[in-house]
Predict the 3D structure of the following.
Amino acid sequence: MTEHLLHERDGALLTLRLNRPDKKNALTGAMYLGMADGLRAAAADDSIRAVMIVGGNDFTAGNDLADFARAGDGGPRPGAAFEFLQVIRSFPKPLVAGVRGVAIGIGTTMLLHCDVVVTARDAKLQMPFVRLGLVPEGGSSVLLARRVGQARANWWLLSGEAFSGASAAEAGLALETVDDNAVDATARRYAEQLATLPPGAYAESKRLLREPQAVELEAVMDAERAAFSARLQTPEAQAIFAGFFARKAG
């Protein structure tokens, strides 16, 4: 467990709250494993009927770039991130995300696996994989186009350009966009509503919705993982990370 991930239980609702505000909730290996373990425990606990993932002023700035840089030096690759993505992909219960501030990289791609997403209108979502010398992950190379259309998915993934929470809702990535101070309450309202539904019927319905793309998605996510891990080792990506830290130090 990590102090950067809080588990908040209120009746049948479990909230996983990212809690690393000084780093805009940039995700560490421990945070990924904490979320994966929390989801696995929630799936096995009949008293938990819904899960909500939120941050504070920011959802998450994505993977901590220091981990990416260490991977180029022979350090551990971000396997914990891929483990979390596998767990969230198959989570059977209601899963709601509330997005404020920034949602960068995996902070956006994980939303593709949530049942309901609520964004602040002025939230900043971005998938800057190519800008970092990397490739898309989380199944986004196939799921995003199905959610928002091919043209928009191509632009967001290939250009890495940021877009607002309002644009995410307009495109269909989020169900609702609200004022920043209403995000958590709105997400909680959806989670509590879904928590009242018959759990067996909900899980089976969720399975049926996923089933047509399950085999394809597994293959896509495996291919993304292999390509992502390989790109981390390239001089191109490592030079980008080194430049980032040099600018930060200056």
